[in-house]
Amino acid sequence: MTTKTLFQGHWRAVATTAPRLLLIITAFLLLLLIGTRVANRAASAGNTVGSFEIDGNLIVNHLVPPAEPIDWDSSAFPAALTTFTDGTGQTDDIFGQGSKENDQSTWVCTAGSAPPKNDVVNEISINGAPPLAGEIAFRFFPVSGVQKQFLYANWSRLSNNGDAHIDYEFNQADPSTNPVPSCPQMPVRTRGDFLISFDTVNGGASITVSAFTWNGTTFAPLSVGSQGTLWDAAVNTAPSISGLTASGINLFGELALNVSDTIGTIACNKVLFVSMKTRASTSLSAEVKDRTRIKPVNFTVINPSGANASGNAFGASIQDALLGVNQTLPAATPATCTQGVCSSQSGVGSTSNSNQVLNVAVPPPGGSVLQANVLSASSTSTVDLTTNTATDTGVSESAGVDLVSGLVTADVVRGVATAQASAFNSSFSSAGSAFKNLVVNGSQLNNVNPNTTITLSAAQFGAGSYVKLLEEIGSSSQPSSGQLTGGTFAADLTVNMIRVHITSLVLTGDAVDVVVSHAQAHADFPQPAGCPALVGTVSGDATIVNEQSNPSQLPVVVGFVSIPPQGGHDHQDLDQLSTSLVSGGTSVSDSAGTVFTSSSNSSSFAKAQNVCVLPVNGVCTASALAILSQANSASGGGKSSSDAQGTSLLGLSVGGTLVSDNPPPNTTILVPGIGSVTLNEQVCDGGGPPPCTGGLSLGLFEARPLPLPLWASVRDFPGPVPEAAGPKKLEFERLGAWQGDGGKQGLAVTHPELPEDIGHMELNGPFGDAQRAGDLFIRKSAHGQLQNVNFTRGERETRKEFFAPQPIRLADLFRQAWREYSAPWS
Predict the structure, then answer these.
(1) In angstroms, rounded to a whole number, what is the distance separating the alpha carbons of residues 370 and 408?
(2) In sequence order, what DSSP letters do the residues of 153-208 get, joined into one string?
(3) CA distance 778 to 760
(4) What is the pLDDT of residues 300-348, one digit of tens each?
(5) CA distance 262 to 38
(6) Which helix (H) or strand (E) segment is 393 a member of?
(7) Could you read off the pLDDT of 240-268 as tens digits, one per residue?
(8) What percent of the chain is modeled with pLDDT above 90?
(9) Pairing between strand 325-329 and 341-346?
């Protein structure tokens, strides 16, 4: 299933948000291969199955490294491990008499003593840990270059005065919600549950490992092949082995089973409910005796010990070729750090370092290159066992900054870089980065978008000189599609709040490069074996202002934030909102999203206070006391949805007239002589208003000044726009003359060589009786150049000359003609 989310567009005037979400959810089914039980009995043991030492003991019997094959006391144990404990004596959890393995209706759960040979007890001690009754572990390991899932299990019992019959049952149902009536500690079996049985004969001289699946009424046998190929098993043949607290042979047993080729690979993050049981004999109709408490088992190995986080931060880096300065402040912390303050963490734990320097002047005493009251930096690296995440955050704060004798000044500059990686995704964020009272080359900048570059005068600073603000260099990665093991989730982010690059200062010829408030972060986390990279992605963005007053120029974008496909968080705070057409107070934009195993979500918002859009003669075309545009998307459980919850418009006025708060979606108001204002614009990806099962476009203000630029309608032409090969005639007709929908007027563009319905421009405002239909003629010179354009408007006629290469696209011709047709006439 593929789903999309919502995109919000706000100006176009004041606030835009746009989370987008793409998620494919795969339902993992447990595939059970039905076959014939094969009773293979042998006393031999080896380590050929799953690279595990099946030798009847718990210790690694070879020098390490190499790490393979493994055994129970391998450290760190490279598999998803679940441990079981069980008591003995009159308080032991057992089955009552007559409880048959294959018939849950006969089960009675009680407390009492199990027969010694069937009494599972705590005798296994791994690396000095408290004794256990048994363990189950899962991991992936390659077989002939193909990753296969293996199960390892062990058990210990009280007495060897008879054969051992142990089983490990894996149920899909949770006993807390679907218990056996007469045995509420155990779950009701459902189709697809499976059981693995370990049986010894003649005191362990022969061992059989068998597997079965529950078909709804009974256990059906699965083919497990021959010992040493798809399975292997052993019991302790020495009366005393390291790690077994009891003494005697055949008191400990272990097995390895190729799950992929017998039962079928168990899906990533699949949770089953498992218990250990003992039976009176090999037969599945035999009485069950002892039982352990049931445990939820997740077969996914999450390995925080293999995770890493690292980063650095500094207040300023100064390079001056003429003065021979190459300095980073604060000083290296710790001393081994190559860039200011560093931290690094491998495996579970946390490290943090910080440093600062006061009253900086480079070079001293005047500080012609850099002055600052405070330069501080910190870096923290953490690998968290509870959340299974690796996180690094670098923070650099600079106060009272003056660069290159007043070229750049700021009261406060704060740079933040955060990178995070988990077992299933990775992300980065610069949230928290900010300027206060920033001035560049005499101009105050209240709004700074990421990677803003201001070109400096070549005559004064040298060719190629610039100031770069809020420089962000980020990336995230994950294992390749279909990869099941050995991959890594990683994220990196570098933030440089101010970079001044001067190639040649006038008079001195000095070359200078200064970076202020730098933060860098890295995090990586190993892929859980058997878990492919999540196929879902999210995206989100928010914009406070997207302003375009001239179609030939790029739009002015303020407060733009966005997140990477694997999720993350981005945020901007603006003290003041100011563009050529929009003004306002405090403004915030924010976008966040997360990809989970079976679901994803994203949410973006942009908000502003005391907003004035398109002022005309001192009156705002549209204004609001408070605007909050919010778009939310979620996907999971086979469906997705988007909504605009949280969106609000308060204290509205359009064209000098008050408008009720929170107007209905897609409210359009005509403003005579100016154009139109659209409020609370909401459009689903598939068209139409919300609610949306997929994506949504939402915007709170869209001010369209009159006349509407022609480029906006050219894109509505079906297919490529043809080229004009010779003199052409374009006819402009009043839209109101033939559309008549409530008095709307505008212009339509037609052409003799194009279909009549190639699209039209709708001005949504009175065009004026004096401005009636006009004719536009396009002529070429003998040399094939566009020579002139003649058109009439009302009683007047004008002629404009152009020079452009031929052939010229009609789209370009339309743009130029409309500029001339729309321009004021003298």
Answers:
(1) 10
(2) EEEEBS--SS--EEEEEEESS-TTTSEETTEEEEEPP-TT-EEEEEEEETTTTEEE
(3) 19
(4) 778 898 999 999 999 999 999 888 899 999 999 999 999 899 999 999 9
(5) 12
(6) strand 389-403
(7) 999 999 999 999 999 999 999 999 988 88
(8) 49
(9) unpaired
- Which residue is it, tokens 């052993």? 234
Place of tokens 């610069």: 430
Q: Which amino acid is at 179?
A: P
- Other beta carbons within 10 Å of 471: 19
User: What is the C-alpha to C-alpha distance for residues 324 and 120, in angstroms, rounded to an integer?
Assistant: 76
Mean local confidence (pLDDT), 160-180: 95
One-letter amino acid for residue 135 of the chain: E
Provide, for the chain, the percentages of residues in helix, strand and coil under a 3-state DSSP scheme, each rounded to the nearest 5. 5, 50, 45
Does residue 785 surpass a pLDDT of 50?
no
Other CB atoms within 10 Å distance of the CB of residue 301 = 22
Asked, as a colleague might, if the bond just before 689 is cis with ω within 30 of 0, I would say: no
Q: Do the beta carbons of residue 685 and residue 19 sit within 8 Å?
A: no
- How distant is the alpha carbon of residue 789 from its chain centre? 53
Contact 598, 535 (CB under 8 A): no
CA distance 653 to 625: 9
Partner residues linked to 594 by β-bridges: 567, 601
- When pLDDT is cut at 50, 70 and 90, the band that residue 22 belongs to is very low
Q: Copy the structure tokens of residue 92.
A: 């032991």
Question: Are the C-beta atoms of 137 and 117 separated by less than 8 Å?
Answer: no
- Token pair, residue 592, equals 């966040």
Q: Which of 301, 207, 212 is nearest to 254 (CA)?
A: 207
Contact 211, 257 (CB under 8 A): yes
Tell me if 451 sits within 8 A of 467, measured CB to CB.
no
Tokens of 299: 């077969």
Q: How far is CA 687 from CA 23, 300, 684, 694, in A?
A: 20, 42, 5, 10
In order, the DSSP letters of 629-667 are: EEEEEEEETTEEEEE-TT-EEESEEETTEEE-SSPPTTE
State the distance between the two ends of the chain, measured CA to CA, in whole angstroms: 61
pLDDT band for position 47 (cuts 50, 70, 90): low
- pLDDT (tens digit per residue) in 50-67: 999 999 999 999 999 999
> Which tokens in the block code for residue 435?
């300027």
Altogether, the residues listed in the chain come to a count of 826
Q: What is the CA radius of gyration of the chain?
A: 36
Q: Report yes or no: 356 and 374 within 8 Å, Cβ to Cβ.
A: yes
Is 784's pLDDT higher than 50?
A: no
Structure-token match 């007239």, residue found: 657
Average pLDDT, whole number, for the chain?
79
Kindly report the CA angle at 243 between 238 and 247, in degrees rounded to 5?
45
